[in-house]
């Protein structure tokens, strides 16, 4: 049996989410990142190399040898250069970038915990791709291919796991009070908008692969992910791209702003949609987000190429529906994918406007480091193409515990009780599907 490009029968993958969950739960392939994009699911595992960045140190590992050094400059450039020094030989890279990645570009490093991780990228030995043509396996041994074949076959038509109820309405973080503070700051002219979030700590350990499978069966994400990397486990159902740069160097971002509940029945959903598209607060919030995204893409694109499409469309994402737009431009010849990510990160719909003041408010009022929440899961091809999908609607777990997190966009017209309710609506995309370990 060949060790590369081994194709399995299409009928084995009628349920790709089940296949991905089973591969992750099998615990045979070391650390992994699973990433779903339209038409393709990739399970990348058993790293042969990695690039880790924290506030003070860069660590680069290749074939079990690690070098560590202090770093200076911008995180995007440091990561780009570190990947460029590795003998990738055509391999892809996968990983995550934390919200704190933005602190250097937005003059917010004073807020950082010295131990805060900024990014963790890995280069896998094994890639398993599931698409319309079946399953393609690269980098695996013959024995591993047999194991993968068996795992995927066994996953199909298996019953869905059962969730553990979670109380999402208890809030020890004082969310409504923090929203009221932000509204006062906005009305005093300090900034226009900020996204404040609240953390929901879980009283039990989570089966993250099973949570991914159950959640994916009940969500309609733009992208989804499942990972175990550097002591962090996470699974989520991303509503939007922070940034993508395709093989033709077209850079895209998808700002979402404006939210109502979804999935409560056709009549209720349509009434909520009508309210969403006519609510002045939501329209203003979305319009200034699109304006900001357009300006950011203009900073790295060829003049005349930035454009907005699908302006203020309604997109359904699990338990919520959003106002959404798409902004694109042609990346300038002297700019890289990492330059595009740096200017677009963090997503305007997860930080604030202006971004510098909004991010400062996030650090001050959210009260703790966000880490992967409102950061990005990333894929980088050897040609420089990149996707960075926004990490929202997710569950997180380390040895210290498991948690959920959700936020809402605060503007001058915001009411604290409504913004709290919005966080509950967003938590409804993940909380009902959390599976206890």
TrEMBL record:
Domain Chorismate-utilising enzyme C-terminal: 173-426
Tagged with keyword Metal-binding: yes
Gene Ontology biological process: L-tryptophan biosynthetic process
Domain of life: Bacteria
Nucleus in keyword set: no
Cofactor: Mg(2+)
Gene Ontology molecular function: isochorismate synthase activity; metal ion binding; oxo-acid-lyase activity
Assigned keywords, A-Z: Lyase, Magnesium, Metal-binding
Cross-referenced PANTHER family: AMINOBENZOATE/ANTHRANILATE SYNTHASE, ISOCHORISMATE SYNTHASE MENF
Protein name in UniProt: Salicylate synthase
Originating organism: Nocardia bovistercoris
